[in-house]
């Protein structure tokens, strides 16, 4: 029997503000219909509530502490160069893997994962004319030492009268539908991944999706409170919104100044409209799947990389260990699934996707995968297995570095904060979800000792207290010497070569040097520097360091 295809749908910053998750104000008919043909997971949690580490963990099947990726700047190939991703594993077992949009954290899409190079799209921003001039006006008024002086984004929201495909998510949906029709005719099964940008900021969607929502009815929160008796580094500071020209003074959760009802309502309206826009694109994709007669042999997975605060805890954004940030929408539909339309509230992790797809496709699960297959829950969503979901978050606060580990059971959320470099416990939090899900009261001081002991013991089984190291395996070493050592890269392949400089902290340069086929490029490096070389077609991934001046590296086709 032919192996099933896989349609892999990722949505950035999507919290469960969806009809099938009980949000009566959401307009999400297509995701709601998908839930009826699959199993909806009501207590699914990401491993880190920020894009890069969440996606890296899911796609490699490794917990963040094993992978060594906890923050935005570090690419997982520097942390673990020989990691095998989910699409790589599927390709080894006969699949064609094609990706569009944000599956990994931008701007490094990991070409090794895909059978074909990722195709770019030409789209419009969706802002009214003159927005760049307005940015310059705002920047001119900023202090010289403000980081946004050269790094300020446009307005946080926009509602252009524009066709869906003129914006990035609609354009990528067009490409994905083309590939769906093409790959569906091929002999090999496909893994087709489409990652939507919205509802990530900026919240830009066509006006017609704004018109679906009455802002007066939306559940605006302007009286949220920071949970008392928690460490000062437990809650994120809403700084993500201050990247945008009209929100540069957005208040922090603990500021006396509050977000106004008018602003909160506009932001809420923009978020819900963006969700409806993405839902419409998902509907187009699912319609094409049905039209091509592929639905009966295609697994569909819908997930988000993390949640998002819309005023909860008086915060906006993600980046914490609270449930509002770690809980995500997650739906799996599979051929022959007799439990279609059912749901489960058993805690599960995005880490579980890798082994689950192995089971559903009849492929051996690799021994490095740390998640647990959800196949038993798909077969029996009403079962009550004793599972927990883990999340964690790194925080640099007031000169100290901390890692918070959260564990969600059926009834509680337990958080243990530790010093990053030693593993010493600095604070704990405990929330009782039997009463409500607000996590407004930290009950650690009044909880039964046996409960805390049991939760601690369970957490330590998977996340022992130990020192952690932020710098990844691949990083430049300035201590080896500072002598100039120009290095030349000669491209002897048929694909573009991308050369990334790697900092002593292990961070890639944002814009790689591109070496065309047959071309050569010299980089003014120094001894101790490190460069990562990738081919655009995904066949090459090499690490080089200049050992002497004018060294030439010939990049050959493998």
Describe the structure.
This protein has 558 residues and is α/β, with parallel strands linked by helices. The chain has 3 domains: 5-127 and 149-379, Alkaline Phosphatase, subunit A (3-Layer(aba) Sandwich); 389-462; 478-556, von Hippel-Lindau disease tumour suppressor,  beta domain (Immunoglobulin-like). It has 13 helices and 25 strands. The chain has helices spanning 29-36, 51-60, 64-67, 76-79, 86-92, 131-140, 168-183, 207-210, 261-291, 323-326, 353-361, 375-379, 449-462; strands at 5-11, 39-41, 44-45, 96-101, 157-158, 190-196, 203-204, 298-304, 309-310, 316-317, 327-328, 330-333, 343-344, 348-349, 389-397, 400-408, 412-419, 425-432, 487-492, 497-502, 513-515, 520-523, 530-535, 541-544, 551-556. Strands 4-6-1-8-12-2-13 form a 7-stranded mixed beta sheet, sandwiched between helices. A 4-stranded antiparallel beta sheet has the order 15-16-17-18, covered by helices on one side. A hairpin with a 5-residue loop joins strand 9 (309-310) and strand 10. Helix 1 packs across helix 9 and helix 7 runs parallel beside helix 9. The longest helix has 31 residues, at 261-291.
């Amino acid at each position: 029997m032919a192996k099933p295809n896989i349609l892999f749908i990722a949505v950035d910053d999507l919290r469960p503000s969806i009809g099938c998750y009980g949000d009566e104000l959401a307009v999400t008919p297509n995701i709601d219909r998908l839930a009826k043909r699959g199993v909806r997971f009501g207590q699914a949690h990401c491993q880190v509530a920020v894009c890069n580490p969440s996606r890296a963990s899911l796609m490699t099947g490794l917990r963040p502490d094993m992978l060594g990726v906890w923050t935005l700047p570090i690419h997982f190939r520097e942390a673990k160069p020989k990691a095998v991703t989910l699409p790589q594993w599927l390709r080894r077992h006969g699949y064609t893997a094609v990706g569009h949009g944000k599956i990994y954290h931008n701007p490094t899409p990991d070409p090794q994962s895909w059978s074909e190079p990722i195709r770019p799209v030409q789209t419009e921003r969706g802002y009214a004319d003159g927005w760049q001039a307005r940015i310059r006006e705002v920047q001119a008024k900023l202090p010289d030492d403000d980081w946004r002086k050269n790094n300020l984004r446009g307005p946080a929201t926009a509602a252009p009268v524009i066709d869906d495909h003129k914006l990035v998510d609609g354009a990528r949906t067009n490409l994905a539908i083309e590939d769906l029709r093409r790959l569906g005719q091929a002999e090999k099964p496909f893994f087709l991944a489409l990652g939507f940008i919205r509802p990530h900021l900026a919240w830009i969607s066509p006006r017609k999706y704004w018109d679906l929502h009455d802002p007066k009815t939306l559940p605006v929160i302007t009286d949220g409170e920071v949970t008392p008796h928690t460490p000062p580094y437990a809650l994120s500071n809403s700084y993500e919104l201050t990247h945008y020209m009209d929100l540069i003074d957005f208040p922090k959760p603990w500021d006396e100044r509050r977000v106004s009802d008018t602003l909160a309502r506009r932001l809420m309206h923009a978020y819900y409209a963006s969700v409806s826009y993405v839902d419409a694109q998902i509907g187009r994709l699912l319609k094409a799947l049905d039209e091509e007669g592929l639905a009966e042999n295609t697994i569909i997975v819908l997930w988000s990389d993390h949640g998002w605060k819309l005023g909860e805890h008086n915060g906006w954004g993600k980046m914490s260990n609270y449930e509002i940030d770690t809980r995500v929408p997650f739906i799996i539909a599979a051929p022959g699934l007799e439990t279609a339309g059912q749901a489960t509230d058993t805690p599960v992790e995005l880490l579980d996707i890798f082994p689950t797809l192995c089971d559903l496709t009849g492929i051996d699960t690799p021994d490095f995968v740390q998640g647990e297959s959800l196949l038993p829950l798909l077969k029996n969503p009403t079962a009550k297995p004793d599972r927990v979901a883990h999340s964690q978050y790194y925080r640099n606060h007031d000169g100290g570095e901390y890692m918070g580990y959260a564990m969600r059971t059926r009834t509680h959320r337990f958080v243990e904060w530790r010093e990053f470099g030693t593993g010493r416990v600095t604070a704990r939090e405990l929330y009782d979800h039997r009463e409500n899900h607000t996590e407004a009261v930290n009950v650690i001081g009044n909880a039964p000792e046996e409960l805390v002991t049991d939760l601690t013991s369970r957490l330590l089984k998977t996340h022992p207290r130990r020192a952690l190291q932020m710098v990844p395996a691949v990083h430049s070493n300035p201590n080896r010497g500072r002598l100039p050592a120009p290095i030349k890269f000669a491209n002897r392949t048929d694909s573009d070569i991308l050369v990334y400089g790697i900092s002593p902290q292990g961070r890639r340069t944002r814009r790689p040097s591109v070496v065309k086929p047959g071309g050569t490029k010299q980089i003014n490096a120094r001894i101790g520097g490190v460069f990562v070389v990738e081919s655009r077609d995904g066949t090459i991934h090499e690490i080089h360091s200049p050992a002497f001046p004018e060294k030439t590296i010939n990049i050959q086709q493998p």
